Amino acid sequence: MTPVDVSVIVPVYNTMPYLRRCMDSLVGQTLGLNRMEIIAVDDGSTDGSAAELARFADRYPGSVKVVRQPNSGGPASPCNHGLRLATGRFVFFVGADDYLGPEALERMVDAADHHGAEVVLGKTVGVNSRFIYQQVFARNEADISFAGSGLPWSLANIKLFSRDLIERHDIRYPEDMPIGSDFPFTLEACHRAARISVVADYDCYYAVRRLNAQNVTHLSNAADRLYCMRRLMEFTVGLMPPGKDRDAVLSRLFALEVAVVLRDDLINVDRSVQEAVHACVRELADRHLTAETGAELEVETRLRIAVVQAGDVDDLLAVIRQDVQHGVAPIVVEDDRWYAAYPGFRTPGSSIPDEVFEITAQAAGWAAKLDATQAVWRRRADGATVLAISARSPLPDLAAQGEIRVQAEDLTAPVQVTESRPATVVQAEFAVADVVNASAVSGQRRSVRVSVHARGQEGSAPLRAAGLRLPRPLIWRRGLRVYAITPAKDPSGRLMISVVPMTPGRILARLTRRR
Predict the structure, then answer these.
(1) Is the pLDDT of residue 95 over 50?
(2) CA gyration radius for the chain?
(3) Bridge partners of residue 426, in order along the sequence
(4) What is the rounded CA–CA span in Å between residue 427 and residue 429?
(5) What's the rounded Cα separation, in Å, for the pair 406 and 414?
(6) Which of 239, 148, 247, 131 is nearest to 196 (CA)?
(7) Which residues, 6+ apart, have CB-to-CB distance to 119 below 8 Å?
(8) Are 454 and 402 in contact (CB under 8 A)?
(9) Pairing of β 411-413 and β 404-408
(10) pLDDT tens digits for range 285-296
């Protein structure tokens, strides 16, 4: 019997009603059901997912296979279970919240066969303002490596993998990792693959942000997160030989996994968690942080890690409280050197050396650190509705350094700069129509960033909004569709602009609340 081309593995746990769209997108693939098998592994769902899967299995016998297992507490076990049952030339993992474009599997299989690729990345886009890194999807590629491609920022398991590659190297998901178990699986597959290709000219994968998602702190499960962060770092070092590829992956781990535990919300958790975070970050930085592996760090995170390495927990918390409660620290300029004057910088009794706070090499990035002080909806003289943002820099002569830009990714806002000692005020306006028109139909989330020139450098930093009072969401119509435009803050107090499609149910609920 000729094997199918693709075994699609769907780990399922309480994903209704999103599961229905996911399964519809799979059975509707242009690849054809005769060339694929769908293996859904129900990890002990209690919300009706089991009944929905049974309906698909009855409707598509021989194509949809459903297995049920007791809840394992994470996606690793159901993914491994699906691998044991797979018979296709390739395997593809799909989150049960997500869905595929109709031609996704056909295009990825064609790319794999045409290029001789053992791993294929299909372009992934976010739904309901879910953020997805896009660097690796800049263009179609026949063969990419880790260094310089954006691949280290796109190591989720939502890729087409050669099953021969997976079985030849016995690559499996570590079931003792409650967080991030797809990273080592994907990393090893990509590291061992003879060729990795990219399909960037078609939206293959739609990654969905649940509209009822709760804003849970990243440190609510700190022990698991720190354990897994350490595991990911050590797995990378053990798998990959020294060189640019390994540095690129470690750089991503410091910029994402390590940076996330040093976010502003660290000041709100128990002392034991703060101490555990400090100890873990110090250990990993002392062992693995170099100029190369820290290349992707935001200047703010770079300084916080330096304080961790040189000081104690209270020194770190003092730096974070400065950012959260008082805004960007003043800058001290001495003999052509720049220092961020945080608590601990030449504070009586502090043993932290000046170089920890020196930002000369990252002066432009630090000059781009502004605090948003106001965000309001406003009607301009030309009738356009805008999100008007005011921000403050501690540098009194910021404009003298060079051009200042405020951007929400691909959108650039008109800027007005006012110098008033001891600070500079920057005002920017994003036209709501432009934000909505530039967003995907499924919604989009944009981070607001400031770019400046300083000391001959070009620098960029997220616009901080820790103390900002946010305006209410604005409802906006584009054609027959209705969207909510929402200024928001991420867990580290950075300003975001979200465009989220409004379903009839959400509109009705909103009207009911208003009444």
Answers:
(1) yes
(2) 24
(3) 391, 417
(4) 7
(5) 8
(6) 148
(7) 159, 160, 161, 162, 165, 189, 190, 193, 195, 196, 197
(8) yes
(9) antiparallel
(10) 999 999 999 989
